[in-house]
Amino acid sequence: MSRTSVTGRLSELETAVELLTEQEYDKFRRWFLEREWEAWDRDIETDSGSGKLDFLVQEAHDAKRSGKLRDL
Question: pTM value?
Answer without folding.
Answer: 0.62
